[in-house]
Amino acid sequence: MRKRAATKFGTFRILLVCLLIGALYSLYKGQDADWDLKNYHLYNCWALLHDRLNIDLGAAGIQAYFNPLLDLPYYLLGTGVLKHLPRVLAALQGLWYGGLIFFLLQIAVRLSGLHGRSFGVIDLLAVLIGATGTMAMSQAGLSSNEMPLALLMLAGIHQLLPLCAAELPSRAWRHAVIAGCLCGMAVGLKPTAMIYPPALGLALLFALGARATAWRLSALFALGTCAGFLLTYGWWGWTLFELTGNPTFPMFNQWFHSPLMPANSGTDVRFLPRSTAQWLFYPFYWIRPSSGLVTESPVADARIALTLLAIVGLAAMAWLRRARPSTERRAVRLLTIFVTAGYVLWLGMFSILRYTVSIEVLSGLIMLLAVQELPGSQRADGSARRWPAWTMLCLFLLLAGSSTHPDWGHAPYADVAFDVHAPAVEPGSMVVLVGAPQAYVIPFIDRAQASQYLGLTNLTKRSQNHGITQATRERLLAYRGPTYALLRDDAGEYLAMLKQWLPGAKLTDCSTIRSNLEHDQSNVDVSSNLRLCRLQRS
Predict the structure, then answer these.
(1) Of 27, 203, 244, 426, most Cβ neighbours within 10 A?
(2) CB atoms within 10 A of CB 211
(3) Which helix (H) or strand (E) holds 146?
(4) Within 13 A of 416's CA, how many CA atoms are on the CB side?
């Protein structure tokens, strides 16, 4: 009993250390001011709390219809008790990264135990390789929510690893259901995680040998995934279905056929591979610094490329050692199939690098498994040699020195977390958001609830004269009260659309929006002249 209590206390201390690392790193990076935060993470929470779905129309573009559940804590804390404590808010947001490191450590500990050895320096190096990946570190502390999704996925993998032991635990079904619920919750909170539950379910099935027990546990995992998804997304999906006829609006409209949008997926395809060579070898294209390939910002990282090479090596060595008992390789199969299937689904659906955090953080463990499978990694008595640890150290130093981490947007700390000052508008006004990202200003307009907000954004453009475009144009033309435009200098095509719909309209009495989120870390203004203007109709 004492040993068990001591183990739990030790685990708790490790958790506290990991959380402290995440908090301090996020605090060091500065105030989150990324594009998505300024476009929809703040606005969507305000819109939910003030029941704006039936009042505003696409104020934050496509993202105005994303599930706001995961954004609520950050918004409520930043506009509530931590309004004047922006550093504390940033530190709390970094806890997701700390939790991710903790579960990665726990997976490494459990993996070493399944291979009959104690956790050591070589395992710690594998954890460090994954935890210092460019996407994990660049997303830490941001409100973009990649961290909590990856944390839930790793927690799910941690639940499934006991099923890879020689003997199944007494309540194996519970591990499968809990893992499924965790992964399903991730998908419900942000559907970009949808590629990972199928990958993990497939990995579980083949890790256990595709026998009757494997099929049963995989089915329970799938049921748990559905339950977790309904828990976090069911309410929001029903809300969207009642409003638009599509529970995932505006995405995947080729299946639901809402009259408001064309019948296509609506997913971002800017970063999909452009050639056969890229489809086959895409990760090798961002080993060297690149921009506009799989991210908007410059990035360089060899982790996924090395991980795929390690998986090919593991597959080759597994084939050469076919006589080896399958139970010793269940955990290896679970991780490698999950990473491989997850990568393939990611490649075909998004190819947006920040969505790979769940597989990027496992890169070090996959490399470690491959190194330990190399001939001569163990002595005749079964003890480990030293060169695998030195190999992992060299890999860590090589990756740390060759990686380029993107910055998605940070600002210097101000006295207020969201120090936004917008000019007043008359109650009952219509405010047209011309382009993006600027919907975050809306909650900070005096008596914002008394006006309505209309977006001329990517959503209007993608609607292609379907319901959204028609409704936007009709509402704009029919309105006769005071009208304003919220825009930046780079809103060219959307400003042209506005002037096409309202010939002769002029922007007058423009007032600059003052906001701490419109500065970079060097305190340089990056607002592109964000302003609120009165819109005078001819």
Answers:
(1) 203
(2) 9
(3) helix 146-160
(4) 11
Tokens representing residue 167 in the block:
């003997």
Cα separation, 254 vs 136, in Å, equals 33
* DSSP code, position 525: B
**Helices 467-478, 492-501: crossing angle, 10 deg rounding:** 60
Residue-level pLDDT, tens digit, the chain, 538 residues: 555 555 665 788 999 999 999 999 999 999 999 999 999 999 999 999 999 999 999 999 999 999 999 999 999 999 999 999 999 999 999 999 999 999 999 999 999 998 888 899 999 999 999 999 999 999 999 999 999 999 999 999 999 999 998 888 889 999 999 999 999 999 999 999 999 999 999 999 999 987 899 999 999 999 999 999 999 999 999 999 999 999 999 999 999 999 999 998 888 889 999 999 999 999 999 999 998 999 999 999 999 999 999 999 999 988 877 655 556 689 999 999 999 999 999 999 999 999 999 999 999 999 999 999 888 767 655 566 788 999 999 999 999 999 999 999 999 999 999 999 999 999 999 999 999 999 999 999 999 999 999 999 999 998 888 999 999 999 999 998 999 999 999 998 999 999 999 998 999 999 999 999 999 988 899 999 999 999 998 7
The residue length of the chain stands at 538
Cα–Cα distance, 254 to 128 (Å, whole number): 42
How crowded is residue 270: how many other Cβ atoms within 10 Å of its Cβ? 12
How many Å apart are CA 466 and CA 250, to the nearest integer? 12
DSSP state, residue 453: E
Please tell me the distance from the alpha carbon of residue 490 to that of residue 502, in angstroms, as a whole number: 20
Q: What is the pTM of this model?
A: 0.94
DSSP string, 150-166: HHHHHHHHHHHGGGGSS
